[in-house]
Amino acid sequence: xxxxxxxxxxxxxxxxxxxxxxxxxxxxxxxxxxxxxxxxxxxxxxxxxxxxxxxxxxxxxxxxxxxxxxxxxxxxxxxxxxxxxxxxxxxxxxxxxxxxxxxxxxxxxxxxxxxxxxxxxxxxxxxxxxxxxxxxxxxxxxxxxxxxxxxxxxxxxxxxxxxxxxxxxxxxxxxxxxxxxxxxxxxxxxxxxxxxxxxxxxxxxxxxxxxxxxxxxxxx
Length: 220
Prior knowledge:
Blueprint: H1 12-29, E1 31-35, E2 46-50, H2 57-64, E3 70-74, H3 80-88, E4 92-94, H4 101-112, E5 116-119, H5 136-144, E6 148-154, E7 173-178, H6 193-218
Parallel strand pairs: 1-7, 2-5, 2-6, 3-4, 3-5
Antiparallel strand pairs: 6-7
Helix pairs in contact: 1-2, 5-6
């Protein structure tokens, strides 16, 4: 599967517009505290691996990250005006229940162009503890050679004051902690199922360690 056989790669300009909108929304509704953003490589392809416990995780990272980000987002969100908006700000529609070749091609195209791809490796919102990773993250990392930057989004969803389920209370602090970039592959260039399984194990250890460190740093 090549990027050229998929839908056109979304523009970085659109993602930059999304980043600016995200900055305004996130700092207007919550109190983000960003740690370690300097660890994100300034140029070249990068994959953000983001834990997913809150509905705002994607917009939060999009807003506070130092570079425009193209997130893989479930196709169910691309409905009506919201769908057109997400497409306009460079986000990628993916069918989570099949091998979505168009989305795969677009995502690889983003990385081939030296852009930033955002992934929730757990596949869906849950405990946000990286306990169950899908193989997609390993595939993109091994196939593209892009480094993975772990990102922990930590905010309280169990305190009073929530207006919407799975959202931190408005004006509460939300910590976003960027970790050190790392390579997922073993250097062999192998893309076999066994190689991807091994890469997924390495990734899970790195992401879990980053989350534990982020919790220590923030007191979450």
